[in-house]
Amino acid sequence: MRKRNISISNLILLSSFAGVFCIVAGVCAGIDRDSQIVSSSSFSSLEVIDTMASSIESATTEAVAMIDEEEADTVSVSSKENSTNLDILHTVFTVTEYETPVTMYTSDTVNVRSGAGTDYDKLGKLRWGSETQVTGETDNGWYEVSYDDTTAFIMADYIVSELPGTPYVFVGDSRTVQMQMAVGSSDKAYIAKVGEGYSWFQNTALSEIPHYAGNGTTMIINFGVNDLANASKYIKLINSNIDAWTEAGITVYYAAVTPVGSSASVSNAQIESFNAKMQAELDPRVQWIDGYSYLSQTGFSSNDGLHYNSDTYRNLYSYYMSVISQV
């Protein structure tokens, strides 16, 4: 708005100049057309021109001064605004120190900062489950901790007093094994074995789950492609354990059996029937992830019709995470 006002004032001054020039031009023209009228005036033509010239010079000087003043003011304001943006203001906080350090654990991968606020520099990161010596707490929801022989701060939302359950536990067959190879396991545990199904789930995997899953764990189960006829058994086994899992603080998902290529030993029609029965009869506390529809729509790459390449597993994993994050 300021620049626009300057432009308007300039236009007004220029219009004034134009008017003055028109008068001068008219006077000069009048001398040529009717010298009698001019000569009878109380001013000579030269006096009129001198007077007009003096007015123009004065108006020009004033206009230039005003323009210079406005432009200087605009630049000054801009410079002031820029210098203000360079001032970095940090969150103000106070710390209540503990008499003795307390051992706590990170519940996720978390940034370690030089002060109690996200506007402070990052000093590093701690992975899920890292044992941390907490030396105090702040009035704005952070913990003061010992980190690399210095004092640092971690957001309190990511520090717990007991070693937490693994954030994500995947339980399944060869497809789960291959997802682990494609994605990694920094904050995840995999209870899976190639070529297995219901019997292995019941006799082996079930007893291993408490070693990894606990309060705050999200568990994703994905069996069935090796024994599609066992849908009723899977449903009964999972429904009989959902109370214990829920009481332990575990959130349970069942991931649909995903599609196969034409060279596989099973058909997509069989898979669709298995998925429909599982989704309809599992306890409502078991949440459903429809990876079958996702890969059917986005496509997948498979050499043997049954197992996917790494890119497909990574895409499927990202889809799992997107569904989980929306709940």
What is the averaged pLDDT score?
A: 81
Give the overall form: elongated
Using the CA coordinates, give the radius of gyration. Answer: 39 Å
CATH-assigned homologous superfamily of the largest domain? SGNH hydrolase
- Which segments are poorly predicted (pLDDT under 50) over 5 or more consecutive residues? 1-49, 66-87
Q: What's the total helix number?
A: 9
Helix content: 40-55%
Identify the CATH architecture of the largest domain. 3-Layer(aba) Sandwich
CATH topology of the largest domain: Rossmann fold
What does this structure look like?
The chain has three domains: 2-85; 95-160, SH3 Domains (SH3 type barrels, Roll); 168-326, Rossmann fold. The strands form three sheets. Strands 6-5-4-1-7 form a five-stranded antiparallel sheet, with no helix packed on it. Residues 1-49 and 66-87 have low confidence and may be disordered. Helix 4 packs across helix 9 (310-326) and helix 6 packs across helix 7 (268-281). Helix content is 49%, strand content 20%. The protein has helices at residues 2-33, 35-39, 45-85, 174-183, 198-212, 231-247, 268-281, 291-298, 310-326, and strands at residues 95-106, 110-113, 122-126, 131-138, 142-147, 150-155, 159-160, 168-172, 188-192, 218-222, 251-255, 287-289. It is built from nine helices and twelve strands. The protein is of the alpha/beta class. Strand 4 (131-138) and strand 5 form a beta hairpin. The longest helix is centred in the first third of the chain and has 41 residues, at 45-85.
